Amino acid sequence: MAAPSAPHPLRRNWIAVASAQHARRGCATPGTGFMQVCHGKAAPLRRVQAGDRVAYYAPTVTMGGKDRLQAFVSIGIAQPGEPYAFDMGGGFVPFRKDVAYVPAQDAPIAPLLDSLEFVEDRTRWGAKFRFGLFAVSDHDMRLIARAMQADTRALDLA
User: Fold this and answer.
1) Half-sphere exposure in the Cβ direction for 149 (13 Å, CA)
2) Is 38 left (phi over 0), alpha (psi -120 to 50) or beta?
3) 3-state secondary structure of 63
4) What letters, b where the CB count within 10 A reaches 16 and e where it falls short, cover 109-140?
């Protein structure tokens, strides 16, 4: 007789923040997705567990640029494994975590602001993004995924 399967651990949802250019590097090559946060620090990535959902928010198109975007640009599921160092050249060795991204479209945040639970004060909605990585509810992740036209079943959000 087979032992009963263990219950699925509580899946969390994360918003990561990066320029669109940087976020899109992580999902550019099918089958080899990754995420980097907080200028390559490992500690924030350790909070993201296998099976967690991750959506990238891009305030700008380029890092430090004035080219405002304010949109969600990628979404996927964190894969098993610890954060690992990756040499990007020029002495920059950030930490990454593998992510299986699903096909999605950019989704501006403005139309979602009144419905997102993590937006506590509409006049200061951007404050949370300064953390670089923060947890959100299933409701918010589902709203973001739908706005991005992502397959909610592939993200286990149906």
Assistant:
1) 6
2) left
3) coil
4) beebeeebeebeeeeebeebbeeebbebeeeb
Q: What is the pLDDT of residues 94-120, one digit of tens each?
A: 899 999 999 999 999 999 999 999 999
Token digits for 38? 């907080």
**Cα–Cα distance for residue pair 127/37, rounded to 1 Å:** 17
Cβ within 8 Å of residue 31, ≥6 positions away = none
51 SS3 class: coil
Task: Tell me the per-residue pLDDT of 106-158, one tens digit each, with 9 for 90 and over.
Answer: 999 999 999 999 999 888 998 899 999 999 999 999 999 999 999 999 999 97
For residue 102, the SS3 value is: coil
- What is the separation, in whole angstroms, between the first and last Cα of the chain? 32
Q: What angle do CA 76, 81, 82 make, to 5 degrees?
A: 105
Coarse DSSP helix, strand, coil percentages of the chain, rounded to the nearest 5 percent: 20, 25, 50
Residue 51 backbone zone (phi > 0: left; psi -120 to 50: alpha; other: beta): left
Position 120, amino acid:
E
